[in-house]
Amino acid sequence: MAFSLSWACVIFGCIFASLAGTSSISEAYPPLWKESPGQFSDYNVENGKYIINVWHYPERLGTYKILLNKTAKYFEKFAPENEQNILWGLAVQHGWQYHTGRLADPTQTTDCGHESGDHLCISVDSWSADINYYLSAMPFFAAVDSGIMGISSDNVTVLPPSKDQMSFCYNVSSCHSSFPEVMKKWNEFYQHVKSNSSNCDDLLKYLWAAHVSSLEVARKNFHN
Ligand SMILES: *[C@@H]1O[C@H](CO)[C@@H](O)[C@H](O)[C@H]1NC(C)=O
Ligand SMILES: *[C@@H]1O[C@H](CO)[C@@H](O)[C@H](O)[C@H]1NC(C)=O
Ligand SMILES: *[C@@H]1O[C@H](CO)[C@@H](O)[C@H](O)[C@H]1NC(C)=O
Ligand SMILES: *[C@@H]1O[C@H](CO)[C@@H](O)[C@H](O)[C@H]1NC(C)=O
């Protein structure tokens, strides 16, 4: 565990700060960061709910962008410019998945995610995309639930994929009922983010617990 934790420190704590040291700051951000939604009002609204198509790369990336924006004030005490926000790691990893073609349809039966076709599409047949769902939609909904995002839990939903709908959840209440343990762990993390007394090591511990909990459930649903 001590080993895992120091790994977590490396991955989450330093990744952005070190990437930001590269020649151009724009290289540090995930692809299409600037173009992606950065606030709820950038998404479609239907019946008083924001509708997020998390099977479209910029819209899924936008959930991280809003999360980073809304949590920035809690990380100011560690470093300026949101550099020490330990949630950067998740966004950067997702950008890497996109950049390396891991979100495309591996069966090639559709052009989803392929350069020659619908290149922004995220395929439900991509194992990386499915696993990442548990590290994007769930941390996002738990943040909404914890009050950090500044909107009501009933006012946001994500779209289901074209198949395997039972393996995912789509709003705060359905995520709670389908994956209670995962939501609980992410909620605990946000409670500590909100608490002034948490130091960075504490936060990493709670983030790591939530991360592992997401991965355990994801792997159970998508074993291969
Ligand atoms: C949130 O949802 C409720 C219930 O559907 C609705 O009455 C309210 O207008 C919504 N709020 C916003 C800001 O869209
Ligand atoms: C968060 O987003 C708002 C709206 O786009 C922007 O005005 C604000 O500067 C952002 N805050 C941070 C810390 O990035
Ligand atoms: C949440 O999603 C479930 C099914 O996925 C649906 O039955 C329920 O009405 C939704 N709740 C809200 C508040 O949108
Ligand atoms: C937390 O910190 C902020 C700013 O540093 C301060 O305004 C606020 O009063 C603190 N809250 C508690 C409960 O200590």
TrEMBL record:
<keyword id="KW-0732">Signal</keyword>
<protein>
    <submittedName>
        <fullName>Uncharacterized protein</fullName>
    </submittedName>
</protein>
<dbReference type="Pfam" id="PF05612">
    <property type="entry name" value="Leg1"/>
</dbReference>
<feature type="signal peptide">
    <location>
        <begin position="1"/>
        <end position="28"/>
    </location>
</feature>
<dbReference type="GO" id="GO:0005615">
    <property type="term" value="C:extracellular space"/>
</dbReference>
<dbReference type="InterPro" id="IPR008499">
    <property type="entry name" value="Leg1"/>
</dbReference>
